[in-house]
């Protein structure tokens, strides 16, 4: 995770760090959505696209979609002092100074 700042459902702008808001989105598939973002900092002006991918199921649906096959994983609780697991889609782990 890149810092602990809360953005209230917004994503930080990759350029200036201000909150960027979702302006619109389009569903590509039942598990993939593209969301168009706009930076709230008028001096920055960045607009971009983020991908939202549903990767796995933690609690089964009471009304499952037969066209969707997601792997089921158990819920995980982080033990005190345990290291943060690396996301499955990251190729490398950045040192804390490089993550900023």
TrEMBL record:
Superkingdom of source: Bacteria
Start and end residues of each stretch annotated as Disordered: 75-100
Segments forming domain Zinc finger Ogr/Delta-type: 13-58
Protein name: Zinc finger Ogr/Delta-type domain-containing protein
Organism: Brevundimonas intermedia
